[in-house]
């Protein structure tokens, strides 16, 4: 068996052993809303987010 | 430019996103865990990336490879996280194996753990996701030639570290 083929077989095996905790879309969106609420609280209390955080967020999506 | 204002999609597009999320989430999570070499980081990156995809779904669903977009956003998010924490992260490849009849090639897991993340990522996209070189280039937004050279170097590094091929 070629090395690439053995590598593919291993990666598929390894992936099957990785437990991914179930997370519903509703739970994901709830987390998003909590983050957003926390940001609002921070800005209400005058605590500014680090400007570099905004820059980093843009960077991830490039 | 794919980045967009933080808006939530209309209810009917939420249904389309939900189908995408249900279909792709585990696959993307596993590919990010394998690429980053760390389970917790890979899962967190997945959640972060899908959240951003949801916020921009009307755009993202029109891309050639929305899964590739989610993968790249997750990978970039995790890279930033790694740079900020500057901590050694435990490798999923070096975890003690659970009972399994699968025989792992000696040295392969250590070699994968030692591989640079940018090389491991193309290996995972090619051999786990089974994407073509063009698909990988599109997802990572790098030239196809770079994908080829990274893949070539990754395979060479893995083989060198494992030692002579026995079968």
Describe the model.
Chain A is an all-alpha fold. Chain A has helices at 3-17, 25-44, 51-60. Chain A is elongated and about 60 Å long. The mean pLDDT of chain A is 78. Chain B has eight helices and no strands. The longest helix of chain B is centred in the first third of the chain and has 26 residues, at 11-36. Mean pLDDT of chain B is 90; it is low at 1-5. In chain B, helix 2 (39-55) crosses helix 4 (66-85). With 167 residues, chain B is mainly alpha-helical. Chain B has helices spanning 11-36, 39-55, 57-60, 66-85, 108-114, 117-127, 133-140, 144-162. Classes of the chains: A mainly alpha (62), B mainly alpha (167). Chains A and B meet through helix 1, helix 2 and helix 3 of A and helix 1, helix 2, helix 4, helix 6 and helix 8 of B.
Topology:
The complex is a heterodimer of chains A (62) and B (167).
Chain A: H1 3-17, H2 25-44, H3 51-60
Chain B: H1 11-36, H2 39-55, H3 57-60, H4 66-85, H5 108-114, H6 117-127, H7 133-140, H8 144-162
Helix pairs in contact in B: 1-2, 1-4, 1-6, 2-4, 4-7, 6-8, 7-8
Strand content of chain A: under 5%
Biggest pleated-sheet summary of chain A: none
Q: Based on CA inertia axes, which overall geometry of chain A fits?
A: elongated
Unreliable segments of 5+ consecutive residues of chain B = 1-5
Portion in strands of chain B:
under 5%
User: Element order, helices and strands of chain A?
Assistant: HHH
The oligomeric state of the chains shown is heterodimer
Tell me about the biggest sheet of chain B? none
Tally of extended strands of chain B?
0
Provide the structure class of chain A: mainly alpha
Question: Which structural class should the secondary elements of chain B be placed in?
Answer: mainly alpha
The count of helical stretches of chain A stands at: 3
**Radius of gyration computed on alpha carbons of chain B:** 17 Å
Shape by Cα distribution of chain B: globular
Run of helices and strands of chain B: HHHHHHHH
* Total of DSSP H or I helical runs spanning 4+ residues of chain B: 8
């Amino acid at each position: 068996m070629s090395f690439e083929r053995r590598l593919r077989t291993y990666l598929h095996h390894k992936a099957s052993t990785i437990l991914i905790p179930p997370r519903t879309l509703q739970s994901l969106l709830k987390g998003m809303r909590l983050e957003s609420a926390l940001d609002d609280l921070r800005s209400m209390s005058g605590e500014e987010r680090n400007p570099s955080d905004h820059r980093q967020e843009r960077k991830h999506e490039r | 430019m794919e980045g967009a204002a933080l808006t939530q999609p209309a209810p009917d597009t939420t249904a389309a996103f939900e189908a995408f999320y249900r279909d792709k989430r585990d696959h993307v999570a596993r590919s990010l865990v394998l690429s980053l070499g760390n389970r917790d980081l890979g899962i967190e990156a997945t959640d972060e990336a899908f959240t951003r995809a949801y916020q921009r779904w009307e755009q993202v669903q029109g891309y050639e490879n929305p899964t590739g977009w989610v993968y790249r956003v997750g990978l970039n998010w995790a890279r930033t996280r790694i740079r900020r924490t500057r901590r050694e992260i435990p490798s999923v490849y070096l975890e003690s194996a659970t009972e399994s009849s699968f025989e792992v090639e000696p040295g392969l897991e250590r070699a994968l753990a030692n591989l640079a993340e940018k090389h491991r990522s193309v290996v995972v996209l090619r051999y786990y996701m089974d994407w073509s070189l063009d698909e990988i280039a599109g997802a990572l937004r790098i030239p196809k030639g770079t994908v080829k050279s990274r893949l070539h170097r990754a395979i060479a590094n893995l083989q060198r570290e494992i030692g002579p091929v026995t079968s």
